[in-house]
Design brief:
With 77 residues, this protein is an all-alpha fold. The chain has 1 helix and no strands.
């Protein structure tokens, strides 16, 4: 009986080491995933800011063109 317990204990040490190693690798992978997701969100936010600024500039340009057209039509009358 004691021999069986000793054998079980001896073999359980490497198994526990393997399990621990697996959980450590899994935690590192999860940390990398979170880091990558954060970087992706930063890029999405930057893209949103750039697109918003681009749309503002386009709207401003359209307003200027529209006001020039109105002035031109007033000059023709």
């Amino acid at each position: 009986m004691t021999g069986t317990i000793a054998v079980i204990l001896i073999f359980s040490i490497p198994i526990l080491g393997t399990i621990t190693s697996h959980f450590e690798k899994k935690a590192k992978i999860n940390a990398e995933v979170v880091k990558d997701q954060l970087e992706l969100e930063k890029l999405r936010h930057e893209n949103f800011i750039i697109e918003t600024e681009k749309m503002k500039l386009q709207l401003e340009q359209m307003k200027l063109e529209s006001s020039k057209e109105v002035e031109f039509h007033h000059l023709l009358k």
